[in-house]
Write a structure and sequence with these properties.
Length: 765
């Protein structure tokens, strides 16, 4: 502890001696961060939940051609409509990274050489459908950022083609969905930031009374958020649905750190001049807040490790870790130098402080002197206020009855763990996005017309040698028969289907015969089945499958592959983003206890390494373990489902909530050092002096997190309600269950120490 105190004391001396230079460093970092923020990209949909996978990469490069689908409703065979279709077709065919365009204009132009003026001639070729489609197919292997400009070009081409007023034109597909979702994520991030800042201002204005520059923490934390944008930009961490939730969280946590610095600095100014108040304040509050920040980072680190196979959660954890560290840094290099400059120029304060100034011959008292110097006067009592005194008295009362308090807390925790087993879950990635998002509504319309579209098409990549041999095609037909008999599988389309369709329903007996059939198939069609030495089988699933049904479907396909026995040297693997992302999301929910356990273990190891004392390492975690159980009762009461994001909250709770318990515990032991102070006296004084501060910082954190409740993304809104409740429960646990926990553990420690210190009978006195 002494090393950290000395480091923070030295940092305090440097900041108070060079506040303008410190702010200059902060400004340089700010400009550097803006450069990194400009490099941020975004990833949406299943791709955000799909880990790096060699088989998937191979499939994407060979067969995964993204597309835009244009749904036409109305007078689809009117000559003016078909001419507009032809104009759209021709324009999109020239766009970069577009492989080809399929439209109803193609067979009509092939038949007549042009679009005829007669609707009857058109209907002789394409029939008389009320609904038709244009498909814009991309080159394989494009990333989402590369696909989005094609969607923009399609919107422009729609206007340029001048479709008749009687035709409803909807542009949908993966690129359209990704582009709109990416735009909404950016808008949501900005809106949530604005809401969080606004709520912070309200919270600080009404809750952080009695201090100068009460809104200054907003400046510090917003600087830290910009630093975080820069860091993830330089580190290549993309923005996603989950990542956008981090920034309101960071505003809440960053405010917490800055409020703690601000409050302690104000307290020290009551008894010392600015040049000694800052080192004294930073050496006192810096270590516990620093350890609390590391605990929060380790909580997010537990999420990182336990979700290593799901990029969106890893990006969430990485952004959070960057954020807590950089908002802490901003609190030190932005908030404190500004407060120092302000204190220097507010000369009126120095006269009041003069009576509390330390001996000028010893202007830099030792750490112990810092700890022991508690001068109380009217201004100090006014700063504590009625709330602080009430918190102190309440904590003393609870600590006086530790058995009853801890028993009630334990019973509620047990009930919470029991309730957690029956909570609903949110595992479908489509449930994460706003259900009224235009692109999502359009996609649903497209699926209803086409019988599901790509959402129910799953892919099998076939690798090996001799993929055009009749024996391999015979196996594909065998696989089709086995798979079609399995539940939830609606059909199979394979190279064997293609070859048989172009050969009178039969598979040729020789490889040469197969090749002759394939040579007669148009290249665009053939490449959907064979490309780059690989083969592609499409398996059609039932519409509107639940998450559980999707997992069953995946299992059924894999069992069908195994049961049909592919020939020696041939490997068939079910792949695709949906195949990988759905189990990944479910695993994240099911492993939430492991994630929580990792968080507890990491924070315990940190506290044990810092304090080198089992009691001090254990005490801050006991209230957090209570909260982990209580949060399930809260979720059950509000019908909040367990989402993949919410599954990480246990580890986050331990990391974030440890700050409050550490600060209370630190002050308890600080007070206990005073001569003649009992354990209950120490509890009361600790809760009186820091209870109000952590309540203010905790409530400002609640305000910051509450911005998430207004997110248009259901997963973020639910997470917002959940975090608001958990932070409030954490505050309650810190002030209600930590004092009795400290009393119990302290007394147990004293008894153990007395036992080992007691002389052995017969030993010389």
């Amino acid at each position: 502890m002494g090393v950290l105190r000395r480091l923070f004391r030295s940092a305090g001396h440097e900041i108070q001696a060079h506040p303008f230079a410190t702010l200059l460093i902060a400004l340089v970092l700010l400009f550097a961060a803006l450069g990194g923020a400009a490099q941020i990209t975004s990833v949406t949909g299943d791709q955000a939940f799909t880990a790096e996978n060699p088989t998937l990469n191979t499939f994407n490069d060979a067969f995964d051609r993204g597309s835009i689908s244009v749904l036409l409703r109305g007078e689809t065979t009117d000559p003016s409509t078909l001419r507009a279709v032809a104009r759209f077709d021709d324009r999109m065919s020239t766009v970069d990274d577009v492989a080809y365009v399929n439209s109803p204009a193609d067979p009509v132009r092939a038949e007549y050489g042009r679009i005829p003026n007669s609707q009857s001639k058109i209907e002789r070729v394409v029939g008389s459908p009320d609904v038709t489609f244009i498909q814009v197919v991309f080159e394989p292997g494009l990333t989402q950022p590369e696909e989005r400009p094609i969607y923009t070009q399609a919107l422009d081409a729609k206007e340029w083609a001048r479709f008749p007023a009687g035709v409803n034109v909807i542009i949908t597909g993966s690129a359209a969905f990704s582009a709109q979702l990416s735009e909404l994520i950016g808008q949501s991030t900005n809106q949530l930031l604005g809401l969080a800042v606004g709520l912070m201002i309200v919270a600080l204005f009404f809750l952080f009374r009695g201090v100068r520059l009460r809104l200054l923490p907003i400046v510090a934390v917003f600087t830290g958020v910009i630093y975080t944008f820069g860091a993830i930009g330089y580190a290549g961490v993309p923005n996603s649905t989950l990542t956008s939730s981090v920034f309101p969280i960071l505003i809440g946590l960053g405010i917490d750190y800055s409020v703690q610095f601000h409050e302690r600095y104000e307290e020290e100014l009551e008894r010392a001049p600015p040049r000694t108040a800052l080192p004294r304040a930073l050496s006192g509050i810096g270590p516990p807040v620093f350890i609390a920040m590391l605990a929060a980072a380790l909580g997010f680190g537990a999420t990182w490790i336990s979700t290593i196979g799901s990029p969106a959660f890893v990006w969430f954890a990485q952004t959070s870790i960057f954020g807590v560290m950089l908002t802490f840094l901003a609190g030190v290099i932005v908030l404190l130098p500004i407060l120092t400059i302000y204190a220097r120029f507010r000369r009126r304060g120095f006269g009041e402080l003069g009576r509390h100034e330390v001996d000028q011959e010893n202007p830099d008292p030792s750490d112990d002197a810092d700890v022991d110097a508690h001068v109380e006067d009217d201004s100090d009592d006014e700063r504590i206020g009625a709330v602080g005194r009430a918190l102190g008295q309440g904590s003393r009362t609870l600590a006086s009855n530790p058995g009853i308090v801890l028993l009630v807390a334990l019973i509620l925790t047990g009930a919470g763990f029991q309730a957690g087993q029956s909570l609903d879950t949110m595992a479908d990635t489509e449930e994460f996005v706003p259900q009224d998002l235009p692109a999502y509504v359009d996609l649903q319309q497209f699926r209803s017309v086409t019988g599901g579209g790509s959402a129910v098409q799953y892919d099998v990549l076939v690798t090996g040698s001799g993929l055009k041999q009749p024996a391999v095609l015979d196996w594909m037909q065998r696989f089709e028969r086995v798979a079609s008999d399995a539940p939830l599988i609606q059909g199979v389309d394979s190279p064997a289907t293609l070859v048989a369709e172009h050969n009178g329903g039969e598979i040729p007996e020789t490889k040469g015969g197969v090749q002759r059939v394939l040579d007669d198939v148009p290249e665009q069609e053939r490449q959907q089945y064979y490309n780059d030495g690989y083969a592609h089988i499409t398996v059609i699933g039932a519409q509107d499958m639940s998450t559980g049904q999707t997992l069953s479907f995946i299992s059924n396909v894999r069992n069908a592959i195994e049961f049909s026995k592919p020939p020696s040297g041939v490997d068939a693997t079910l792949t695709g983003s949906a195949v990988i992302s759905t189990p990944s999301v479910v695993d994240q929910i099911e492993s939430r206890n492991v994630t929580t356990g990792l968080g507890v273990l990491f924070v315990f190891a940190l506290l044990l390494a810092y304090y080198r004392n089992l009691v001090k390492a254990t005490a801050p975690l006991v209230p957090m373990l209570f909260v982990i159980g209580w949060q399930n009762l809260y979720m059950a009461a509000l019908n909040i489902p367990v989402s993949p994001l919410g599954a990480s909250l246990g580890a986050m709770t331990v990391g974030i909530g440890a700050e409050y318990t550490i600060i209370v515990m630190e002050r308890y032991y600080e007070e206990k050092k005073q001569a003649g102070v009992s354990k209950l006296d120490a509890v009361e004084t600790a809760a009186t002096r820091v209870g109000k501060a952590i309540s203010v910082s905790g409530m400002t954190t609640v305000f910051g997190f509450s911005a998430l409740t207004l997110s248009p993304f259901p997963i973020l809104a639910d997470f917002g309600y959940l975090t608001v409740g958990v932070i409030f429960l954490t505050l309650v646990a810190s002030l209600a269950t930590l004092p009795p926990t400290l009393i119990v553990l302290d007394e147990a420690s004293d008894r153990v120490t007395a036992f080992f210190d007691e002389p052995v009978q017969g030993e010389a006195a």
